[in-house]
Design a protein that fits this description.
Elements lengths: L18 H21 L6 H10 L1 H41 L3 H17 L1 H30 L6 H29 L5 H30 L1 H22 L17 H8 L2 H30 L5 H33 L2 H23 L5 H28 L5 H28 L4 H22 L12
Helix pairs in contact: 2-3, 3-4, 3-6, 3-7, 3-8, 3-10, 4-6, 4-14, 5-6, 5-8, 5-14, 6-7, 6-14, 7-8, 7-11, 7-13, 10-11, 10-13, 10-14, 10-15, 11-12, 11-13, 12-13, 12-15, 13-14, 14-15
C-alpha cells in the first residue's frame, strides 16, 4: 500500500473568536502525534517502507540493489565456487586417491543428499530467525568444511565432508530468496530473483577456469584452502553489515506454521506441481554440475585445462539467460497482465527447449555443434529458474521460506540421484544419448507441471497464509 501524503502541520490561523487558540491546540496535538509515531511505530517496518515508497526516492531505487550487489551476490558466488570446486578437481582427486568414476560421482552428488534433506528445516529456520543469522553462520560453517576437506584420505571421508557441506549450504538458498523478498517490492522481485540466480551461475562460470588453473598451479588441496578462507571473510562481513529489509514485517510477530496453514499448503496441487517442476528441471541441470567434466574429457576428448574453459561456457549462457529472463518475464507481465503467461508459459517453454537441445547434443559428431547445443539447453533452463521462484514466492505471503525449502528439497532429490543414475548407466555400457534420455524426458514432463503450478497466476492460497 502506498503511504498517503502527510497533512500540513502549519495551517493558517483563524482570525475568528477563539480561532487562534483552537488552531494552536490542534497544532500541538499534531506535533505530539507525529513524535509518538516516530518513537513507537505500530509496525517496525512501517517507517522503512514509508522511506522506501516515497520519503527517499533515491534510496528506494538503489538500496535493495546495494544490498544485493554488496552482500547477497558475493556469498552466492562463493557458494557456487565451493560447490563446483570438487567436481572440477575430481579428475585429479580421483587419480590421486584411486577412486573410480562411480565413486567420484557419488561423492560429488552426496552434497545434494544432505542439501535436499535440510531444505525444509532450513526454510523453517529462515522463517523464524531471518536471513541475517541463518546465512551468516551457515556460510561460516561450510567454509570451514571446505578448508578441512583436503585432509580427507579416501572415499568414505570425502563422502562425510561433502555431506557436511551440503548440510550447511542448504540454508543459503532459502535465506537468499527470503532476503530478496524482504528487500524488493513485489513488482520487482522477478528482477531480484534473476540477479540472485545469475550470480549463482556466474559463480559456476568462474569456477571452471579458476578451479582448473588453480589446481594446475598450486594443487587441489591448496585450491580448496583458498576458497574456504574467502568464504570465512564473506560470512563475517555478512554478519556485521546485513540488516533485515523493509518488507520483512514486524519482528515481534514471526510467522507460525499452524496446523491449518500446514494442511492448506500440503493439500495444494500448486505446491506439489512446483516441487515436481523443480525436480524435473534439476534432473537436467545436475548433468552440468556433476557429469559435464567427464563428458567433455571422455566423449569430446578435451584436455583438463581446456575442459575448464569449455565447462564455463554453458554456465555463462545460463547467467546471461537468467538475468535477461527476469526482465523478459516482467515485461510480458506488464504487456499481457497475465501472470500465467509471464511465469507458467514462460517456464514451460524453457523446460521443453532445454530437454530437446540437451538430447540433441549427445548425438552430434561435431564438438562445436555439441557445445553450442549444450549452451542452448542450459540457457533455456534460465527461463525455468526465474519462473519457478516467482511461482514459489507467489504461493504464500507469510511462509515463503517454507515454500522455497520445499521446492529446493525436490530439486535436490533429483540433483542427488540423477548423476549417479547416469554414471551407472554409462558403467553398464549405455551411450551418452541413452543416459541423457532420462533427464530429458523428465524435462518435457516438467513443462506440464509448470503450467499446473501457474494456472492461478500468483494468487496466494489464503489471504492470511
Amino acid at each position: 500500500m502506498q503511504p498517503t501524503a502527510p497533512k500540513p502541520i502549519f495551517k493558517p490561523l483563524s482570525t475568528g473568536k477563539n480561532g487562534t487558540g483552537l488552531q494552536r491546540g490542534r497544532l500541538k496535538r499534531d506535533i505530539d502525534a507525529m513524535t509518538m509515531a516516530e518513537d513507537c511505530p505500530a509496525d517496525p517496518g512501517a517507517a522503512a517502507r514509508g522511506r522506501m515508497a516515497g520519503g527517499d526516492p533515491a534510496g528506494a531505487a538503489t538500496r535493495p540493489w546495494l544490498v544485493m550487489a554488496g552482500l547477497v551476490v558475493p556469498i552466492n558466488i562463493m557458494m557456487a565456487l565451493d560447490k563446483n570446486s570438487f567436481a572440477l578437481a575430481a579428475p585429479m582427486i580421483g587419480n590421486a586417491l584411486k577412486l573410480d568414476y562411480v565413486q567420484v560421482s557419488t561423492v560429488i552428488a552426496a552434497l545434494t543428499w544432505s542439501y535436499a534433506i535440510m531444505q525444509l528445516p532450513s526454510g523453517w529456520l529462515v522463517s523464524h530467525l531471518g536471513p541475517h543469522r541463518t546465512l551468516g553462520w551457515a556460510c561460516m560453517a561450510w567454509s570451514a568444511v571446505t578448508i578441512g576437506m583436503p585432509w580427507a584420505s579416501g572415499f568414505v571421508s570425502f563422502l562425510v565432508f561433502r555431506i557436511a557441506m551440503g548440510t550447511f549450504q542448504a540454508a543459503d538458498w532459502s535465506a537468499s530468496v527470503t532476503a530478496v523478498h524482504d528487500w524488493f517490492a513485489p513488482a520487482k522481485r522477478s528482477r531480484g530473483n534473476a540477479v540472485l540466480l545469475g550470480c549463482l551461475y556466474f559463480g559456476s562460470t568462474l569456477s571452471g577456469p579458476l578451479t582448473t588453473q588453480a589446481v594446475t598451479l598450486i594443487g587441489w588441496r591448496h585450491c580448496l584452502h583458498m576458497f574456504g578462507v574467502v568464504g570465512l571473510v564473506l560470512s563475517t562481513l555478512w554478519l556485521l553489515v546485513y540488516r533485515d529489509g523493509p518488507y520483512r514485517g514486524p519482528r515481534d510477530d514471526p510467522p507460525r506454521l499452524s496446523r491449518r496453514a500446514f494442511a492448506t499448503l500440503l493439500c495444494s496441487p500448486r505446491l506439489w506441481a512446483i516441487g515436481a517442476f523443480y525436480f524435473c528441471a534439476l534432473s537436467m541441470q545436475s548433468f552440468y554440475h556433476v557429469n559435464l567434466p567427464h563428458y567433455l574429457m571422455s566423449a569430446r576428448h578435451l584436455s583438463y585445462n581446456a575442459m575448464g574453459w569449455v565447462f564455463a561456457l554453458p554456465w555463462l549462457c545460463l547467467y546471461l539467460s537468467v538475468v535477461a529472463s527476469g526482465f523478459a518475464s516482467d515485461a510480458i507481465l506488464r504487456r499481457s497482465g497475465s501472470p500465467f503467461k509471464a511465469r507458467a508459459v514462460f517456464g514451460a517453454a524453457g523446460a521443453a527447449l532445454s530437454a530437446l537441445s540437451l538430447e540433441a547434443a549427445a548425438y552430434c559428431d561435431s564438438n562445436l555443434a555439441a557445445i553450442t547445443l549444450l549452451c542452448v539447453a542450459l540457457a533455456a533452463l534460465g527461463m525455468c529458474q526465474v519462473a519457478i521462484w516467482s511461482l514459489a514466492q507467489g504461493l504464500t505471503r507469510r511462509f515463503s521460506g517454507v515454500v522455497v525449502g520445499w521446492t529446493g528439497f525436490w530439486g535436490n532429490v533429483a540433483a542427488g540421484s540423477m548423476p549417479i543414475l547416469i554414471s551407472r548407466m554409462l558403467g553398464h555400457g549405455a551411450s551418452w544419448g541413452a543416459a541423457l534420455a532420462v533427464p530429458c524426458a523428465l524435462g518435457l514432463l516438467g513443462a506440464g507441471f509448470c503450467l499446473i503450478a501457474g494456472r492461478e497466476g500468483q494468487k496466494p492460497l489464503l489471504d492470511d497464509l
